[in-house]
Design a protein that fits this description.
Layout lengths: L12 H9 L22 H6 L1 H20 L1 H12 L3 H7 L11 H16 L14
């Protein structure tokens, strides 16, 4: 059997970036398959039972978003420290993300593509209307 010590299976952007910079190879990625949309979901019952938690979460998200917009240098310093990355890595990765807290038309299309990908790959069994989630 061959040497598989240089195989990277599935890793996040900071680790993937560092691996490529170290000379490892990217075999494939999810480009054009699904969008990396980060979202949180909750049951309607939880929302109804805990509106204070939902309000606090939404307020915190808005504060973080505003902080990032108003303090780009400090945001950069925090991110670089927490992910142990340098300026070059930060400048490469940061533009790849949309930190908006609003769900856009692009996001909705991305959710639809993700759903289709999961259906095709039997990661989920039942089809559903994405719009019902919003």
């Amino acid at each position: 059997m061959g040497d598989f010590s240089n195989i990277i299976y599935l890793i996040d952007d900071p680790a993937a970036y560092k691996a490529k910079e170290a000379g490892l190879y990217e075999v494939t990625n999810g480009k054009d398959l699904i969008d990396a949309i980060i979202c949180l979901a909750s049951s309607e019952q939880f929302i109804n039972d805990h509106p204070d938690v939902i309000d606090a979460f939404n307020k915190a998200q808005e504060e973080i978003s505003n902080f990032m917009k108003d303090n780009p240098d400090e945001t950069k310093n925090i991110v670089e420290k927490e992910f142990d990355i340098d300026d070059k890595a930060y400048n490469h990765m940061y533009p790849m993300y949309d930190f908006s807290i609003k769900i856009s038309v692009k996001d909705r299309k991305g959710f639809e593509r993700s759903k289709e990908f999961m259906l095709e790959n039997k990661m989920i069994e039942n089809n559903f209307d994405i719009e019902e989630l919003f």
